[in-house]
Amino acid sequence: LQAKAVMAAGALVSDEIVLGMLEERFSQPDVLGGFILDGYPRNLAQANALEALLGRLGQPIDRAVQLDVAESTLL
User: The whole model's pTM is what?
Assistant: First the structure.
């Protein structure tokens, strides 16, 4: 709800709020089988925070994929 209110106001959701949402979601039993994050993390600070969160939850990062595609290819 907090993130929804921030987005409704046209602002960016803070890293703190996003991490809280991720922690809540990653604590669900169905996540134990794995998950995919699309578009997150976007910077080094977010990557470090995500790695720390997953470490606390016992969910190591197994793989990361970065797709680098020319904008002209996408359009």
Answer: 0.76
